[in-house]
Amino acid sequence: MSTIHLSLEEAHSLAMDCLLKNGCDEANARAAADRMIQAEGDLCHSHGLFRLPWYAGAVKSGRANGKAKPRVEQLAPAVIRVDGDGGFAPLAQEIAHQPLVDCARENGIASMALVNMFHIAAMWPEVEKLAMEGLCGFAFTASYPYVAPAGGSKPLYGTNPMGFSWPRKDKPPLVFDQASAAMARGEIMIAARDGHSVPETAGIGPDGEATTDPNVVLEGAQLGFGGYKGAALAMMVELLAGAMIGEFLSIESAEDDGGKGGPPKGGELMIAIDPARHGDPEGFLARGETLFEAILEQEGTRLPGARRFINRQKTPETGIEVPRSLHESILALM
Ligand code: NDP
Q: Under CATH, to which class is 3-181+224-281+306-332 assigned?
């Protein structure tokens, strides 16, 4: 694949210019560009510049509000709601952070419903930020229907990710962030493009039969990881980040988009817990380290999130490689 080399600063300017020229104001463009380049810096390309044409198209068509002014509302002592004003999630998430931290510190736990926004992407940036404040973070979001319910054969759940973070002293937080589907949608699409097979656990055909052909999975349905267990988690995410907060279920989000395949509109549920308020304020950090040390003593292990933190140290120096075709399609949008 032909690529071009960009520094993180160049990639950020490219994203900013593209968003500004397609109708975002400065605050919305900067927040979205920050998120994309944060993902690029961790070498999570599927949430980086790859998403930029999607964002530009959604704001240019008027579907997303490029001048959104998110609003924060306190619903109960430990419950906050953030209305994203129909804009992209990053600005709302940025504005939501401090109220959630303050509320969790005050109550020991706080929950936040983020609604009316486009494309809640990877979960790790927001949960990691909570752990940097000494809190545990949880985040959940639903998207478009790709995954069949356990025993079913038609797409119904999103690939519905969930993120979790735990604070560590003088170390990057422990963060995991994973879809409830067995395989990422993008990986199945890439396998289809490149003529590779996928594991039988990834999905089923329209007839409900197991297959290793990614094209057949894309016509049929993906499966949750670990069979019915992943499907149950996907269902939980639909309830928490859809039904409970008055936002779209994945099936409704697809209807709202009318099959155009733009960024999904929807919501996110975040929960922040202050571990220092749960009975062992002096000990919990050390107890976490006891667990991590025991894990890492075993050969072949690593902590979730470690890959990203290593990448993050390198990319400010090394920059990133961007597919030439993607770079050209971004330039064509300006
Ligand atoms: P992966 O399967 O790549 O990784 C899931 C988690 O497992 C990560 O925290 C990863 O850490 C960790 N991990 C991976 N390998 C190991 C290992 N050998 N030992 C210990 N931990 C490990 O993620 P997914 O494909 O499930 O999801 C990718 C991204 O896509 C996520 O950020 C997710 O939020 C996002 N997503 C977003 C959706 C949406 O609708 N918005 C839908 C689906 C996914 P590390 O990062 O260090 O590798």
A: alpha beta
